[in-house]
């Protein structure tokens, strides 16, 4: 079980604690929160794949549809955010995840929750709260006070959802570390934290994001996927920050076949991502990789797209 949980993660804090948790009997809860906003894309799917791994390992899964967080992060009116939340839920279900879906507003307005936010505010310095939120709010030239309330609420969510394992991208690390530091002082357990990679956008500039349009959505059709990958940033022989190779690493099922004319080296069988990366560094053409990734992504995403319709 631990091997599947470790797969494609950037880190687990800590592996020793996870080992001990897996030995315990009784209910174990893993959660991840998503702000309902924009298209559900491969970056989200990477997180959902990890939740499915945890589900298979015996965890109860909670998906927090963080409507109040999205509101604080200026993602729209509560009505608009709630409508997007329902669309997001449908997409996650279409990926095969069985989970309890909870809107933040269902419990974050309760008196006990509010009192705990105040306690967290007293226990957290302003600088620490700002550092915890800086990755998420860094594009805001004039950040609001909400940007320091946000991480306190996220820490509080872990307590009030009775979470054993908190999951997120690496951009969530500072908030998760804040929770591990502060929650034990409030008489609550420190969560185990799983951090997944952040997918690079197709333009090679920053993370995959709806607001930037540099994404492959899970409901994109075949033509759209092919066109997006055809135009994706994929520098010759470069691996770091190469979004096409990242998709190949986290989504492709190996072994894979690359079909080429003899004059371009002939057909190629790659047994794992390591072999693909080596071949690319040695001169495998970007278009061969783009074609391979497009073909496999279409096969992976078509069933999801059909269920979302």
What does this structure look like?
- The chain is α/β, with parallel strands linked by helices and 309 residues long.
- It is built from 13 helices and eight strands.
- A six-stranded mixed β-sheet has the order 1-6-5-2-3-4, with helices on both faces. Strands 7-8 form a two-stranded antiparallel ribbon.
- Helix 6 packs across helix 8 and helix 8 crosses helix 9.
- It is globular and about 70 Å long.
- The protein starts with a helix and ends with a helix.
- The model has no long low-confidence stretch (mean pLDDT 93).
- Counting copies of identical and different chains, the oligomeric state is single chain
Strand order of the largest sheet: 1-6-5-2-3-4
End-to-end separation in angstroms reads: 34 Å
The number of helical elements comes to: 13
Shape by Cα distribution: globular
Structural class: alpha/beta
What's the overall average pLDDT, rounded? Answer: 93
Name the poorly predicted regions. Answer: none
Helix content: 40-55%
How much β-strand is present in the residues?
Answer: 5-15%
Largest sheet: 6 strands, mixed
Number of strands: 8
> What gyration radius follows from the Cα positions, in whole Å?
20 Å
SSE succession: HEHEHEHHEHHHEHEHHEEHH
């Amino acid at each position: 079980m631990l091997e599947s949980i470790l797969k494609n993660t950037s880190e687990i804090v800590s592996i020793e604690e996870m080992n001990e948790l897996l030995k315990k009997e009784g209910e174990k809860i893993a959660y991840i929160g998503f702000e309902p906003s924009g298209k559900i894309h491969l970056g989200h799917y990477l997180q959902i794949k990890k939740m499915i791994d945890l589900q298979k390992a015996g965890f109860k899964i909670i998906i927090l549809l963080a409507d109040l967080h999205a509101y604080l992060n200026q993602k729209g009116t509560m009505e608009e955010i709630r409508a997007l939340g329902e669309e997001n839920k449908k997409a996650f279900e279409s990926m095969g995840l069985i989970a309890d879906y909870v809107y933040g507003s269902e419990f974050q307005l309760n008196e006990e929750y509010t009192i705990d936010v105040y306690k967290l505010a007293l226990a957290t310095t302003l600088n620490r709260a700002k550092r915890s939120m800086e990755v998420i709010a860094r594009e805001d030239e004039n950040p609001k006070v909400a940007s320091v309330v946000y991480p306190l609420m996220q820490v509080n969510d872990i307590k009030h959802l009775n979470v054993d394992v908190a999951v997120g991208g690496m951009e969530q690390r500072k908030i998760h570390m804040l929770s591990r530091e502060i929650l034990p002082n409030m008489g609550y357990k420190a969560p185990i934290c799983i951090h997944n990679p952040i997918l690079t956008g197709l333009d090679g500039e920053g993370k995959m994001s709806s607001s930037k349009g540099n994404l492959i959505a899970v409901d994109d059709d075949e033509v759209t996927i092919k066109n997006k990958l055809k135009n994706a940033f994929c520098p010759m022989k470069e691996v770091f920050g190469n979004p096409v190779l990242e998709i190949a690493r986290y989504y492709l099922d190996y072994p894979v076949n690359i079909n080429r004319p003899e004059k371009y080296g002939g057909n190629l069988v790659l047994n794992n991502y390591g072999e693909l990366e080596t071949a690319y560094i040695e001169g495998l053409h970007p278009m061969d990789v783009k074609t391979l990734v497009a073909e496999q992504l279409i096969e992976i995403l078509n069933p999801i797209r059909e269920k979302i319709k």
